[in-house]
Automatic annotation (TrEMBL):
The keyword Oxidoreductase applies. The lineage of its organism: Bacteria, Bacillati, Actinomycetota, Actinomycetes, Mycobacteriales. This is Methylenetetrahydrofolate reductase. Its cofactor is FAD. It comes from the Bacteria. Pfam families: MTHFR.
Length: 332
């Protein structure tokens, strides 16, 4: 159950606050708890499209449970049935697993009442961690952004709303190469700092393949605002397992994969009519391992893996890093 009570926002307006179940740990607490022996890792799942996809997701969930990630996040799609399935599975992650779930929340297609109800439904099952995002226009991430008539325009506003609702631990998105709609990196940094100042506790980056972009982002935020710059910036990695997933990486990040990375993968693919999938996969795992090693050396607070709902590739990277992972059978 969550509890409503009369409360006041930073602007003095009365709101009904939602108290998440007190037992759930925050992401920041979990990072601290996991940091003793190794750099923590976390994983991202996506809403499955159908029953077969859901079965695959649950196999990955059970496999990751044995590897003890600091948290798992579930992305949010605004489309009709996917939306309902996402919310249901996110709640099940809290109720039926030992994992710490982070619910992605986007402003796309939602008025404030609906957003508050969704946050309330998460609080009801003990979910305290929310990754607050504006989201992209459905169907075309680069298309024109249209605010819902009763919604918000920027993630910063939604951060304030979620924080006003109760004791939520809030994460936001950060962009090592700048968000594609930001006019320049300085403005992009100022917007990220504003989201953190509004109450976000950490950020997770967009996926990248050049560590320098991550390091420069960290330096920019620290120089812009040393207090906000001290909050964790969690790098997102995607182990590439085929040339098809390169395309997926470009779609997800809106950024080209750097030429040296692409060259390594293409060389592994070979000149034949069919790509040498085994060699591409091995190269992809090697690239992700090298990136993770450098990020650990540079003091990253956590390694966040895009899994596409498979456990095997992430587990191979973790094994290469010397992490103890399960001996149970893994899916691709
Ligand atoms: C880790 C991660 C997870 C993600 N998960 C999802 C997901 O689950 N579902 C989904 O649909 N999308 C997801 N996305 C994609 C994300 O929703 C898009 O990248 C979106 O375009 C930007 O979201 P945001 O929260 O950064 O928006 P905002 O911070 O609101 O920024 C949006 C744009 O507005 C600009 N801006 C911000 N504040 C202001 C201001 N005050 N005045 C003027 N301009 C401003 C920014 O520079 C940016 O160009 C994710 C992205 C990341 C990095």
């Amino acid at each position: 159950m969550h509890f409503f009570s009369a409360d006041r926002t930073a602007t003095g307006a009365a709101v009904r606050s939602i108290r998440p179940a007190p037992c759930s740990r925050s992401v920041v607490e979990s990072l601290r708890a996991h940091a003793g022996t190794r750099v923590p890792f976390s994983v991202e799942f996506n809403p499955p499209r159908d029953a077969a996809g859901e079965a695959r997701l649950w196999r990955a969930v059970r496999q990751f449970e044995r590897m003890h990630p600091a948290f798992v996040s579930m992305t949010y799609g605004a489309g009709g049935s996917t939306k309902d399935r996402t919310a249901r599975i996110t709640r099940q992650l809290a109720q039926q697993t030992t994992l710490l779930p982070v619910a992605h929340l986007t402003a796309v297609g939602h008025g404030l009442a609906e957003l508050r109800a969704l946050v309330g439904s998460y609080a009801d099952c003990g979910i305290r961690n929310i990754l607050v995002l504006r989201g992209d226009p459905p169907g075309d991430p680069l298309g024109e952004w249209r605010k819902h008539p009763d919604g918000v325009t920027y993630a910063e506003e939604l951060v304030r709303i979620v924080r006003d609702l109760g004791d939520f631990n809030v994460g936001v998105a950060s962009f090592p190469e700048g968000h594609h709609r930001s006019p320049d990196l300085a403005t992009d940094t100022a917007f990220l700092a504003a989201k953190l100042r509004a109450g976000a506790d950490y950020s997770i980056t967009q996926m990248f393949f050049d560590i320098e972009h991550y390091l420069r982002l960290r330096d920019r935020v620290a120089a812009h605002d040393p207090i906000e710059g001290a909050k964790p910036i969690i790098p997102e990695l995607m182990p590439i397992t085929s040339l098809r997933t390169v395309q997926r990486a470009v779609e997800l990040s809106g950024r080209a994969v750097p030429a040296p990375v692409l060259d390594r993968l293409r060389k592994a693919a070979g000149d034949g009519p069919e790509e040498n999938r085994e060699a591409v996969r091995a190269a992809g795992i090697e690239i992700a391992t090298e990136m993770a090693q450098r990020l650990i050396a540079e003091g990253a607070p956590c390694l966040h893996f895009i899994t596409l709902n498979f456990a095997k590739a992430t587990s191979e990277v973790l094994t290469n890093l010397g992490y103890e992972v399960t001996a149970a059978p893994l899916s691709a």
